[in-house]
Design brief:
The chain is of the alpha+beta class and 235 residues long. The protein folds into 2 domains: 3-80, Glutaredoxin, CATH 3.40.30.10; 90-233, Glutathione S-transferase Yfyf (Class Pi), Chain A, domain 2 (Up-down Bundle). The protein is built from 11 helices and 4 strands; from the N terminus they run E-H-E-H-E-E-H-H-H-H-H-H-H-H-H. The chain has a 4-stranded mixed sheet. Helix 1 links the parallel strand 1 and strand 2 (28-32).
């Protein structure tokens, strides 16, 4: 039975898994879940994932719910190219695990906080943006960008964990690109090392990266129009 993939491309980890599936030609049945319509809160979906989150895979009855676990499982099961998640070199594998553990409370947490405050809260909850929280997350994310440059990309490494692309790069770029939806991409664009890495990963994952990020580009257009309208209203 074909692998079933439940996702919403507005979700950063959903995009990372989607790009990986496409890049590695792993066959799957797409099962889109519209978060904005609340489909993740339906009784039917909760039977699959009681946490009401995406992404999720159903591999012939084996259900897995966390993006990092999903990526590692797929990489090993389908015996993909070793650079994605090294199996023959324990230290190289540990480097990929290192970033994937780091990103939870750093790249993902802070980028997600900015996106939540600038997009989700005012749109879905009709609440005011908590600007102190935005600024705190922005400052922390600037430190993350510094970490990417000075630790993960040090010694002129082209990718986060070495000389070739890995699962870590997919997770990292999808978190940073989420900010493009709310005009916050300058957080990393001002850093030439990190910007070069972003461009490198985008080129390496084309055309799947562009396909996965169409919804991000649409959200950016909507956000830009709303922001301009708010600024004009203040004049």
């Amino acid at each position: 039975m074909a692998l079933k993939y439940y996702y919403d491309l507005m979700s950063q980890p959903s995009r990372a898994v989607y790009i990986f599936l496409k890049m590695t030609n792993i066959p799957f049945v797409p099962k889109p879940v519209a978060l904005r319509s609340g489909e993740h809160h339906t009784d039917e979906y909760k039977k699959l994932n009681p946490l009401s989150l995406v992404p999720v895979i159903d591999d012939d009855g084996f259900v897995l719910t966390e993006s990092v676990a999903i990526l590692k499982y797929l990489a090993v099961k389908y015996n993909v190219a070793d650079h994605w998640y090294p199996r023959t070199d324990l230290q190289a594998q540990a480097r990929v695990d290192e970033y994937m553990n780091y990103q939870h409370m750093n790249t993902r947490y802070n980028g997600g906080m900015i996106f939540q405050q600038l997009v989700i809260i005012p749109r879905a909850m009709r609440a005011k943006i908590q600007w102190p929280m935005v600024e705190n997350a922005r400052n922390r994310l600037e430190n993350v960008v510094s970490h990417l440059e000075n630790y993960f990309l040090k010694d002129n490494k082209p990718y986060l964990c070495g000389s070739d692309i890995s699962l870590a790069d997919l997770l990292g770029i999808c978190e940073l690109m989420q900010l493009y939806a709310c005009c916050e991409e300058n957080i990393y664009e001002s850093n030439p090392v990190v910007k070069a890495w972003v461009d490198r990963v985008m080129a390496r994952t084309a055309p799947h990266f562009e396909e996965a990020n169409k919804i991000v580009n649409r959200s950016r257009s909507v956000y830009s129009k709303q922001k301009k309208a708010q600024e004009n209203a203040k004049l």
